[in-house]
């Protein structure tokens, strides 16, 4: 007899609820996560064996029915708190999807994985073997990009720069938006990705058209009095945290040495070592930068 029936047929109002768990279970499994983000860890790739979800609903005739995970009513039924009006179109109403924090992130992850699975399944059915090059991340996609890169190297020479551009949620543009919307960066990945794309296009334009790097590449600390804002940005985002004998407990410290090979030695010119690793020009200009209470020269 379930609790609802017990309450219906019992005259007693004194009830006690006791939750009994298995003693071999891990107490940390259902602990509240200290992180403010939600992510999906997908082992392997999407294939035919994982492309179907067993979703059963009861229709108006009280009959059980299978529905597809891309059915327009699947997400509203799975996330009723995000769709109180049972409709996807909420453009002229209060948009709960953007206000639910971690729950919104879970919804986005679920929607993305459902779409990604169906996209892979479509290409598998269409191509009869494996997805075409238009399927981002697929085998043909990676192979054609590799062949294009090798063709470019053949005609223009091999690259000598490896430029990494990452997103920073502390960008002032994002900070202003999040302050106006009263949310965090992880609550609005659409805004973060949009600003990132704008800045990435600007960087590519600076490199290809405005010749940002010029003819000499160096990594030196600038004069703070002449470039205060630039020095502050370099300190926050480009300088390795002080390590070595001053802070031996950091993760980068292995056998008493920095695994990232900091601090770097001074050198008067940019060159390549025996492994073709670029050693940037680092002259002893006398400029220092203070980070976490420790003076750094490079």
TrEMBL record:
Any Pfam family the entry gives: Helitron_like_N
Family matches, as InterPro entries: Helitron_helicase-like (IPR025476)
Domain Helitron helicase-like as annotated: residue spans: 128-216
PANTHER family: ATP-DEPENDENT DNA HELICASE (PTHR45786:SF74), DNA BINDING PROTEIN-LIKE (PTHR45786)
Protein name per UniProt: Helitron helicase-like domain-containing protein
Lineage of the organism: Eukaryota, Viridiplantae, Streptophyta, Embryophyta, Tracheophyta
